[in-house]
Amino acid sequence: MAKPLEEYQRKRNFAATPEPSGKRARGKARALQFCIQKHDASHLHYDFRLELDGTLKSWAVPKGPSLDPKVKRLAVHVEDHPLDYASFEGHIPEGHYGAGDVIVWDRGIWIPEGDPHQGYAKGHLRFELQGEKLGGRWNLFRTRLGGKKEQWMLVKSSDAQAREEKDYDILEAAPDSVLSDRSLPSARPVAAPAAKAPAARKKAASASRTKKAPKAALPESLKPQLATLVDSPPQGDWSYEIKFDGYRILARIDDGEVRLFTRNGHDWTAKMPRQVAALKTLKLKSAWLDGEMVVADENGVADFQALQNAFDTEHDERILYYLFDVPWLEGRDLRQLPLQERRAALEAILADPPPELRYSASFAEPVASLLASACQMNLEGLIGKRQDSVYVERRSSDWIKLKCQKRQEFVVVGYTEPKGSRAAFGALLLALHDDGRLRYAGKVGTGFSTETLQSLHRRLQPLEAPRPPLDNPPTGAEARGVHWLKPQLLAEVSFAQMTRDGIVRHAVFHGLRNDKPASAINLERAMPVKNSSAKAMRLTHPDRIIDASSNTTKLDIAEYYAKVAGLILPHLENRPVALVRAPDGLDGELFFQKNAAQLDLPHVKTYDKDQAGQAAMIINREDTLLGAVQMNTLELHTWNATDKQFERPDRFVLDLDPDPKLPWKAMIEATTLTLTLLEELGLRCFLKTSGGKGIHVVVPLQRKAGWDEVKDFSHAIVSHMAGLFPERLSAVSGPKNRVGRIFIDYLRNGKGATTVCAWSLRAREGMPVSVPIWPEELAGLKGANQWTLANIDERLADGNDPWQDYAGTRQSITAGMRKKLGL
C-alpha cells in the first residue's frame, strides 16, 4: 500500500525546491484546515486543499472558485500534499514539477457535513468554509468524466454568502495573498510549448554573453571565491542560492580534458569518474567551472556523511555536481564580468545537462522567507551573492553565508572508549585554533552510524599520540581513558551553542573533511552587518544567534530594547515582571523567571513573599532593562497590579486565543464583538497584538476591587460572550475546547498571573513584537505577528501612540455592569 505522501515526494527534489518535504507532524487538537493556493505554473490555476487524515486532499481548479451556485468549476483531483504546504508561498524553480509562483489565496477551516471519510470515498463532500475570502456551504462531487485523473466539480451552495458572478467575481475583487499581500501575474494566454534550442544555439547564446570578457590563456590553477558568514542579510541587489552541504570542487577543462580540484588545489579527478564523463558531454574546449559535490538523502536534502561514504567506498553514482559559477570560458577570462552575466553564461551551458550535473538556481523570494524555508527543510542555509560582483580568488564580503544552525569544522584530537553495546569508540574530542594555540572545544558522541564508527575508528588508530596536543587539555574524569591523537583529521560538526569557555553543547557529527588543512581551523564568527547602537552597554557574546530563522543575534535584541526603552518602560513601571530567558537561543531551553535570584540586574527593585505575596522584581530603568537583555531575556510579562497596592489590580486583560487554523478574519470578528460588549458596559479598552496568534484587550481600572472580584467579572464577560456565540467563542481553556473556535482567556486576571508587556519581543521564530494598535486599525491588520524585529522600525517611524490616553483613563467596575452580566 502506497504511503500517503509517496507520490508528492517522488515528484519533487527537495534540495532544489523550497516546497516542504512533509515531515512536520500534526500538532494538538484543532479544526480541519483548508487552503486555496493561486499557482502561476504552465497555466494559472487554483489549488484547493482540504485537510483529512493527516494530509491535504488536493484538487486543481483551473478557473478558480465561484460564489455563484449556478457555476460549476472543474476540480482535477491530484496527489495529497503535506499539512505544512498550506502556508507555502514561493517560487518553484524552472525544470521542476509545478514550476512557477505560488501564493496562499485563501485559508481557514472547513467543517464537513456528515462523515468526511464516507463522503470522500463516495465522491461527494458537503462542507462549510470559514476562510478569509470564502465562507458558507460548498460541495465537491466526483463526475463520470474520463481522463488520467479524477474529474470533480466545486460548487457553491445557495446561502447568505452566495453571489451571482455577473455582479461579483471574487477572483478579480480579491486577487492577492492572504498571508503576504503578494500578487501573481494574471493568467497567461495559452501558447504552444517552445522547442528546445539545439546545442549549437545554446553555445552561441553562451558565447554572446561572454564576448565582452578579455581573451586569455587558461590558467593552470584557480582558487575559489569564499563567502563570509554574516549575522543578517545586507541591503542591496543580492541573489540567494541554497548553501549545499558538500565538497567545494573546481573543474578545469582544457582541450576536452577534465580535471577536478578541491578548494586547496588537490586533484580529485580519479575519485569521480562519472562526473568527469558528464562534464565532457558539455563539449567545452576550455573552462573553469565552480560548484559543489553533493549526495542527497531520500528527501532531497544534501547529506554530508553520505557524500563522505560515497568517497570512502568509491561509489560516485549518487554524487551530483551543482554548478554555480564559470570564472573562465572558451579562452576568455570572465572573472571581471558581473555575477549575473557569468551565471547567465553558465545557465546556457547547462540548458540540457546530463543527470550528474545540476545548475544551482537562485531564488527571487524575500531572503527572510527563503531562509525560513531553508531551515524548515533542514538545509544548512543560504549563500548570498551581490549581483554586480566580480569573481575574486579569496574570501569576500560580496559572497555571504546565512546559516540555519551553528556548524563548522573542528580538529579531532582524541576519542573515548565505547560504553554499553556501542562498538569502536564513544565520542570524539574536538579542538580549535585560537591565536596560534590549539584549545579544547568539547566532545561529539552522536551522529555516527555503525558503519561510520567502524571506518572512522580504523582511521583514528594510526594517529594515536602519547599526550594531548592541546594547550588546555581536559582533566579529571573527562580525560580518563582518552586516546589522544595527532591533530590531523577534521570533523564537520553542528552544535546548539558554545559556552563561554568555548565548549560545544548538543554536538552532532556530520562527517570528516579532507579538503581543508587542520592548521586553518578557527572558530567561525559572524560578521555584523549593521552598526551597533547599543555599544555603551556591556554585552557578552553579542554575535550569539538567538533565532536561526532570522539570524537574530543577542546584539540585535539589545539594540531593539535600547531603541524602545522610552515606550516599554511606562508599561513596566512599578509592575512586578516575569522574564522569559533564552541562554541558548530559541533552539535551547526557555526559562520563565519571576524573581531576581541569580540575576545580576543593576538597580532592580525586589519584594519578598511577605511584601507582595510572592517574590517579585520590578524594572523601572533602562540600564535594568538592558541588564535583563545581558542575562538573555527575550520577553517581559507583567502583573495587573503595581507596587502601590499589590492586592488591588489596576487593569484586567482578555486574551483572545484562537484555534491556529482559524482564518484571521475570525479573530477580527471576535475582537470586534468583545469591543462592542465592553462599550455597552461603559468600559474603555486598549488593544495590542500578542505577537503570537491573538489579540490582547486591556481594560484599565482604578484600584478599588480585589483580585477575586476582578477575575470573576472578567469571567462573566467571557461566559456571556461564549453563550451568545457558542459556535465561535469558548469560555473553557484547553485545545480541545477551542477546536474551530476562539478561547477568550480571562485566567490572566488572578494575582501573580502575567501578560506579555506592550512592546516586548516574543520568543518565537522571526522575533515578533507585541504592538499597541488603534481600534480603527483592526480591520486592516494581517495577523498578530505582523510586526517583527525586521520591520518594527516602520511602526516606530509613525510616531503615534495608540495608548496615549491609557494613563489618564479613570473607570471602575460598577454594580450596573455586574447586573448586565447577571452577577
Automatic annotation (TrEMBL):
<dbReference type="InterPro" id="IPR014144">
    <property type="entry name" value="LigD_PE_domain"/>
</dbReference>
<dbReference type="Pfam" id="PF21686">
    <property type="entry name" value="LigD_Prim-Pol"/>
</dbReference>
<keyword id="KW-0233">DNA recombination</keyword>
<dbReference type="InterPro" id="IPR012340">
    <property type="entry name" value="NA-bd_OB-fold"/>
</dbReference>
<dbReference type="Pfam" id="PF04679">
    <property type="entry name" value="DNA_ligase_A_C"/>
</dbReference>
<feature type="region of interest" description="Disordered">
    <location>
        <begin position="1"/>
        <end position="25"/>
    </location>
</feature>
<dbReference type="InterPro" id="IPR014146">
    <property type="entry name" value="LigD_ligase_dom"/>
</dbReference>
<keyword id="KW-0378">Hydrolase</keyword>
<dbReference type="GO" id="GO:0004527">
    <property type="term" value="F:exonuclease activity"/>
</dbReference>
<dbReference type="GO" id="GO:0003677">
    <property type="term" value="F:DNA binding"/>
</dbReference>
<keyword id="KW-0479">Metal-binding</keyword>
<dbReference type="InterPro" id="IPR012309">
    <property type="entry name" value="DNA_ligase_ATP-dep_C"/>
</dbReference>
<keyword id="KW-0234">DNA repair</keyword>
<protein>
    <recommendedName>
        <fullName>DNA ligase (ATP)</fullName>
        <ecNumber>6.5.1.1</ecNumber>
    </recommendedName>
</protein>
<keyword id="KW-0269">Exonuclease</keyword>
<dbReference type="InterPro" id="IPR052171">
    <property type="entry name" value="NHEJ_LigD"/>
</dbReference>
<dbReference type="GO" id="GO:0006281">
    <property type="term" value="P:DNA repair"/>
</dbReference>
<feature type="compositionally biased region" description="Basic residues">
    <location>
        <begin position="199"/>
        <end position="214"/>
    </location>
</feature>
<keyword id="KW-0808">Transferase</keyword>
<feature type="compositionally biased region" description="Basic and acidic residues">
    <location>
        <begin position="1"/>
        <end position="10"/>
    </location>
</feature>
<feature type="region of interest" description="Disordered">
    <location>
        <begin position="180"/>
        <end position="218"/>
    </location>
</feature>
<keyword id="KW-0238">DNA-binding</keyword>
<dbReference type="GO" id="GO:0006310">
    <property type="term" value="P:DNA recombination"/>
</dbReference>
<dbReference type="GO" id="GO:0046872">
    <property type="term" value="F:metal ion binding"/>
</dbReference>
<keyword id="KW-0540">Nuclease</keyword>
<dbReference type="GO" id="GO:0003910">
    <property type="term" value="F:DNA ligase (ATP) activity"/>
</dbReference>
<keyword id="KW-0227">DNA damage</keyword>
<keyword id="KW-0464">Manganese</keyword>
<dbReference type="InterPro" id="IPR033651">
    <property type="entry name" value="PaeLigD_Pol-like"/>
</dbReference>
<keyword id="KW-0239">DNA-directed DNA polymerase</keyword>
<dbReference type="InterPro" id="IPR012310">
    <property type="entry name" value="DNA_ligase_ATP-dep_cent"/>
</dbReference>
<keyword id="KW-0436">Ligase</keyword>
<keyword id="KW-0547">Nucleotide-binding</keyword>
<keyword id="KW-0511">Multifunctional enzyme</keyword>
<dbReference type="Pfam" id="PF13298">
    <property type="entry name" value="LigD_N"/>
</dbReference>
<dbReference type="GO" id="GO:0005524">
    <property type="term" value="F:ATP binding"/>
</dbReference>
<feature type="compositionally biased region" description="Low complexity">
    <location>
        <begin position="185"/>
        <end position="198"/>
    </location>
</feature>
<keyword id="KW-0067">ATP-binding</keyword>
<keyword id="KW-0548">Nucleotidyltransferase</keyword>
<dbReference type="GO" id="GO:0003887">
    <property type="term" value="F:DNA-directed DNA polymerase activity"/>
</dbReference>
<dbReference type="InterPro" id="IPR014143">
    <property type="entry name" value="NHEJ_ligase_prk"/>
</dbReference>
<dbReference type="InterPro" id="IPR014145">
    <property type="entry name" value="LigD_pol_dom"/>
</dbReference>
